[in-house]
Amino acid sequence: MTNVAGINFAEVVENSQDTLRLSIDGTKTVLKFVGETPSFLVGLQQYNHSEILAIMQTAEWTNIE
Amino acid sequence: MLLRATTIMKILRLGQSLCSSGSIGGAFSKYSCLFDGIDAHVRIEDSALLRPESALTVSFWVRPSSWTQVPFGVEQFMIGCVKSGGWGVYLTKQGGNSYLRFRIRVSDIDPACSGSAQYLTAEVGYVQTEALPEWVNVVARYENGRASLRYNTLSTGTVDGIGCPSATIVYHPSPVPVFIGADSASPTSASNFFEGNIDEVAIFNTSLTVDDYTSIYNDGSPGDISAIVGLQGWWRMGDPNGQASFPTLIDNSVNENDGTMTDMIAADIETVVP
User: How many CB pairs under 8 A join A and B?
Assistant: First the structure.
């Protein structure tokens, strides 16, 4: 997926494009869902909670003070 | 404007992995909100009532996933509007140790002081922070150039942030939403996300007395704080209606400045309470 226009916000937890968490360089975002994988996300990388937390705490996603 | 994203990462939520040994309160508070440390937060819209300038108290109950496992250099905000000027309370790690801190932006307009805006930081030392119990009542106060933190009414190991006695709290001129479970990255978006549960959040436009915050602590059991003078906002994080409240968290003060659960689900309102 190359842009956020393809996100169906009815199928994910995130409210809207305005509330998406972006990586520091703005090129990536993270989406949460409950239950079955939404069709527009099939085939993309998935992580469980602890895995994505570890990723979110890297310099790619978080400003280290 | 479309935002380009070269990769979309996804999370498969695996139930209530953060929920563990909390208990259902038999008294006043029956619910708290779980924040996932990813993007979950509660947004409280800008209000002049939530931008006191001379004095401030912020009180809440918090149960982080861990008091010690915050990554080095990361600031997890339990509540904040720091990047909008303002203030915030956060957990961070420096030099291998964890600290609970309260940062507030003030203006030292007195020529005898700096004559400009600066940030004051109060903290709970790492020895105390790392030994905190599962649930803690945090009270952050500012008045007359002094920022302070109390945990379960205690001051042992705390260090106040000291500025000019005439300094007032400064906010940016743009809208200043307050985020619970995060800080403000901008007037419209959140950052520095917190992982854990938060309950009974209150903002006052006064610096509460020892008697006041001892009353709030109530021997470790949240109670009715509506009679405390200066209450500007009080979000009970799911009480009284539980998950039926989603996505609106009612402001139980007279000001009716409700919060909105953002990037969250109804199940994030949990029966895990102090």
Answer: 132
Rounded Cα distance between B11 and A32, Å, is: 5
Check if the beta carbon of residue B84 is closer than 8 Å to that of residue B103: no
In chain A, the N- to C-terminal Cα span, in Å, equals 31
B71-122 per-position pLDDT tens digit: 888 899 999 998 778 999 999 999 899 999 999 999 877 777 776 778 999 9
Task: Report the range of poorest mean pLDDT among A4-18, A43-57, B97-111, B149-163.
Answer: B97-111
Q: Running DSSP on this structure, what letter comes out for residue B173?
A: S
CB atoms B38 and A4 under 8 Å:
no
The span from the CA of A37 to the CA of A30, in Å, is 14
Out of B8, B188, B193, the one facing A18 most closely (by C-beta) is B188
Record: contact A46-B190, CB cut-off 8 A = no
Q: Do A30 and B10 touch (CB under 8 A)?
A: yes
Contacts of B15 in chain A (CB under 8 A): none
Backbone angles phi, psi at A37, to 5 degrees: -65, 125
pLDDT (tens digit per residue) in B41-59: 999 999 999 999 999 999 9
Alpha carbon distance B248, B245 (integer Å): 6
Chain B: residues touching A (Cβ < 8 Å): 2-14, 17-18, 36-39, 71-75, 92, 188-193, 195, 262-265
Q: Region of B60 please: left (phi>0), alpha (psi -120 to 50) or beta.
A: beta
CB-based contact (8 Å) between A65 and chain B? yes
Cα separation of B46 and B60, whole Å?
Answer: 19
Integer Cα distance of B217 and B225 in angstroms: 10
Of A5, A19, A41, nearest to B263 by CB-CB distance is A19
Q: What is the DSSP string of B18-68?
A: T--S-B--SSS---EEEEESSS-EEEE---GGG--SSEEEEEEEEEES-SS
> Which chain B residue has the Cα nearest residue A16?
B263
A24 in reach of chain B (CB within 8 A): no
Query: What is the value of pTM for the model shown?
Result: 0.91
